[in-house]
Amino acid sequence: MKRIFLIQIFLLIALLSMTGCKTGSEEQQSAGEPAKIKIAASFEAVKAITEAVGGEHVEVYSIIPDGTEPHNFEPTAKDLMNLQNADLFVYNGFGLESSWLDKALSSTNEEKKLTVVEASKGADPLLLDEKSDDGKAVTDPHIWLSINGAELEAENIKNALNNADPAHKDDYEKNFQAFKNSLDGLKKEYTAKFADSQRKDFVTGHAAFGYLAKDFGLKQNSVSDALLSGEPSAKKLKELTDYCKENNVTTIFVEDMVSPKVSETLAREVGAKAVEIYTLESLPEGMDYISALKYDLEKIYESLN
């Protein structure tokens, strides 16, 4: 299977070479414009953070197509073509891309030195209750949903861009600071709001908000686990149903990238309303990273009061 995958990659590269296809950077250079740094990001949230820091000096593509759930994603040779022309590859880490990362990197042109950036490097991971097949603790990958986590990822990306393109270091520093200031503004606003909230717990369909909850001293309870590794058991659903009834939970959050069926059933069972919330694995139309994160925080705040 791996041999077939590699053959597909080589054939696509050869086809592009024979047809004289120009990259975006080549087209810019031929037009007399400064070449942008070409960056492949693993999925949409990483792409958004990279664009916020890189600004006008970068051209960023997602390996995982927008609107595609990244958990257990397996890229095709076509999905990986942007990696062949990239100067940098930025991925989230914490195991999210582990099913395909090594295979993707092994398919790149060995003569070209691709800078690989693990955006979550240096962060303290949250460990899940579940265990891997070899009995090891499993890391929650959803750090990009945390304000503190997003700031760390942005700083790691900034440092990589400074090394790759020192001529524009001042711009990357300025862009990073603007992004951080926006995040800090959200942190300040919602720290004050959550401090006055009547309750500190919320219920989601998918356990993706552990890092965000930690930012503000909240607790999430969820129908499905963080890795979407199967349907919830009848015991799990009964425990959560009882919890919602005993604690008068009025809102069950439904994630945009996950089937809403079980969450909507739970909402009906306990007399709650189902409210959409975003995991930022795909940015909602008309929103950027900051506005989508603010939307989530506001909906969570409303559910606690």
Automatic annotation (TrEMBL):
Superkingdom field? Bacteria
For this UniProt record, give its keywords in alphabetical order, as a comma-separated list. Answer: Signal, Transport
Q: Which InterPro entries match?
A: AdhesinB (IPR006129), Bact_metal-bind_prot9 (IPR050492), Lipoprotein_PsaA-like (IPR006128), ZnuA-like (IPR006127)
Look up the signal peptide feature and give its range.
Answer: 1-23
Gene3D superfamilies attached to this UniProt entry: Nitrogenase molybdenum iron protein domain
- Protein family (similarity comment): Belongs to the bacterial solute-binding protein 9 family.
Protein name as catalogued:
Zinc transport system substrate-binding protein
Organism, by scientific name, is Pectinatus haikarae
Q: What is the lineage of its organism?
A: Bacteria, Bacillati, Bacillota, Negativicutes, Selenomonadales
